[in-house]
Amino acid sequence: MIQRRRNSVVANDWKSREYTNCKVTKKHSVSRTLYLDNLTTPKYKFKEIIHFTKDPLSDKHMAICIGINPAKAEQNIDPTNINLIKLLFDNYDGYILLNIYPEITKNAKKVNFKDDENINFTKNLDAIINENKTEDIILFFGRTTIVPSTFIELINSCVNNNRIVKITTHDGEFTHPARRSINLTDYSSDYVRSFIKITLKNIIK
């Protein structure tokens, strides 16, 4: 069990909501499980597991995809996930969708950096990544993003331990997949740092 300080939700208290046989395109169908703080009016989406509908079904080769924050937590699949599904469908069985900050908002600039859940969530990311030691890690949050240095330390540790880490790119630039076609490029710490803003170890004291 992952314990969180102060008023943060404990991982064992996450509520799950399932959507099966979600049609993405004529070629792509998926099933989805969302993990939320509550099922009525969720404020946080902590995790989403997306399984690709294939024959045969399998979850042996999953990816871990990490964005900045969730835009929504509903049945309709957002453009970000649609593009990730199309990108990964042929080479993976699905992916675990995580975000650096779990707060649901369509505008990443409105993420509350004083919120306990947002401040402490890197601990959950660390735990989930270490529970899934063989999965490739794909960062897709793109440029000019505020990222805690503890997260960069976590990803660099994964690279040092020979984990496969990639980023989504368009024309060679680190790009969020919501509105553009994307490819996968090997992660480089110096390259990513040139596009994002690194905060102190804790976002805000």
Write the layout of secondary structure elements.
Layout: E1 15-23, E2 29-36, E3 45-52, E4 62-67, H1 79-88, E5 94-99, H2 116-131, E6 136-139, E7 146-148, H3 149-160, E8 165-170, E9 173-174, E10 183-186, H4 189-193, E11 197-199
Parallel strand pairs: 4-5, 4-6, 6-8, 7-11
Antiparallel strand pairs: 1-2, 2-3, 3-5, 8-9, 8-10
Please describe what this structure looks like.
The chain has one domain. The N terminus and C terminus are likely disordered. A hairpin with a 2-residue loop joins strand 8 and strand 9. The chain starts with 14 loop residues before the first strand and ends in a 6-residue tail after the last strand. The chain is globular, with a radius of gyration of 16 Å. Helices cover 21% and strands 29% of the residues. The chain has 205 residues and is α/β, with parallel strands linked by helices. The strands form 2 sheets. Strands 1, 2, 3, 4, 5, 6, 8, 9 and 10 form a 9-stranded mixed β-sheet that branches. A two-stranded parallel ribbon has the order 7-11. The protein contains 4 helices and 11 strands. The longest helix is centred in the middle third of the chain and has 16 residues.
Q: Please provide the ordered H/E string of secondary-structure elements.
A: EEEEHEHEEHEEEHE
Helix and strand composition category: alpha/beta
SS field, number of helical segments = 4
Which regions contain 5 or more consecutive residues with pLDDT less than 50?
1-6, 200-205
Q: How many domains comprise the coordinates?
A: 1
Helix content: 10-25%
User: Main β-sheet: number of strands, strand sense, barrel status?
Assistant: 9 strands, mixed
Radius of gyration: 16 Å
